[in-house]
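Re: alpha-L-arabinofuranose structure - here you go.
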Amino acid sequence: MYSKHLIGGAIFAAATILAGAAGAQTIGFSQVGSEGDWRPAFSANMQETAKEYGVDLKFANAQGKQEEQLRAVRAFIAQGVNAIVIAPVVVTGWDQVLREAKEAKIPVFLVDRDVDVADKSLYVTRISADFNLEGKLAGAWLAAASKGTCKVVELQGTVGSAPAIERKKGFEAVIGDFPAMEIVATQSGDFTTEGGKKVMEAFIKSTNNLDGVCASFAHNDNMQLGAIQAMKEAGLTPGKDVLMVSVDYVPAIKEALAAGAANASVELRSAVGGFIYPVILDYLKSPTELPKWIVIPSDLHTAN
Ligand code: AHR
């Protein structure tokens, strides 16, 4: 039985050997899209590690569209794959297609993002980071860095997606304990650099050059990188005039941290195929009830 938190590599390695002995498995993976830098890194890792685990991976990129995901999942069902993996674009709208997979006796595993379904038996487990915790880590860092006094502009991820919902909730839960901390503007930049740049340009206009704004909290690094560009173009100094905290810890934000243009980023691990496949292969070898959530840890990184 898996614990709620990620279990040691030894157990996974043993599970993999057992699963490998059962022969190659075909797994259909419906991925969100290719937005930002984190997502393509995650896709590449899932494709590379599939080979290591002897998995025949059918990879479908939904380009950010849920209807594409529904189409892909139905195609996987028609092909009779051994398991289906979904990183859902948004949390709603999954009940029917998950019922179809269950009727076809194909187990479904959620990775990265969550779904909002009443019947949790429609999927085996979700293997992912805790987005709410990520928002809390960002909020706690900012509360300490600003000594509990801070007006924040927030760049939200894709509307209706689990990371946008949960990171906001977690962040708000923490800053809610500080009477002098508040979000003064919030808008979705859809997890992209271009979206983040546009949103920050709008904030710069609506707040008279971020007058009185102490921090930018972005639900991912790419939006923050776009925000950094917009601020520089407006003659502002991100990382100094305004504290910059975001999520993912991609290479470009590491550079921004080193250069002082960003201050903190919560790491969302992208090289997680080595955690995901053993869980699925073990389950296919010997189906057993798993906890509904297997959590991948998240850590906060700062410039120094
Ligand atoms: O679901 C995880 C989020 O999706 C990542 O933080 C973001 O970069 C991606 O688009």
